[in-house]
Amino acid sequence: MRIFRLTKTSYVNDLSGEGARLYSGRWNRRGDALLYFSEHLSLCVLELLTRMDFEFLAADYSFIEAELPSSLISKLKKPETISEQWRANPPISFTQDYGSTWIQKSRTLALKVPSAVLPNESNILINPNHKQFSEVKIIQKCILDIDSRVF
């Protein structure tokens, strides 16, 4: 499966999950390293635009295109069956607890979750400390080239 990740250009080579470990995210508590990828580069852009102004995104971001075997991805299909507020902003403890528990159990390399921004599309969470992390193959790293007409 092809997956994509957006990051500041200065961090494009960092696949440690340190940023998520330090600051938490929708699917992890502070203290748990995690890499956030998406099924599509366009979803990465949309996810990031919900948190920042366009001029910052256009200035200093790169993307990573990677590939990993689909067999290493488990799926969370319907978080709303567990919590109706799973899309809340800021994230609720349910999603953070769920993701952190998944990280700590380390049963699978990756977890496919619906995007809170666009729930018909998916994000792929990767545990950088999983024993099969070497199965993530980087295809390319490129500067993000996005048209200024987006906004």
- The strand line-up of the biggest sheet is 2-6-5-4
Helix content: 10-25%
Order of helices and strands: EHEHHEEHEEE
Low-pLDDT residue spans:
none
Count up the domains: 1
Q: Would you give an account of this structure?
A:
The chain is of the alpha+beta class and 151 residues long. It has one domain. The protein has a four-stranded mixed β-sheet with strand order 2-6-5-4. Strands 1-3-7 form a three-stranded antiparallel β-sheet. The longest helix has 13 residues. It is globular. The relative contact order is 0.25. The mean pLDDT is 91.
Properties at a glance:
globular, alpha+beta, 3-stranded antiparallel beta sheet, 151 residues, 4-stranded mixed beta sheet, 4 helices, 7 strands
Walk me through the topology.
Layout: E1 2-8, H1 18-23, E2 35-38, H2 41-49, H3 54-59, E3 61-67, E4 73-75, H4 93-105, E5 110-114, E6 122-126, E7 137-143
Quick summary:
With 151 residues, the protein is α+β, with helices and mostly antiparallel strands.
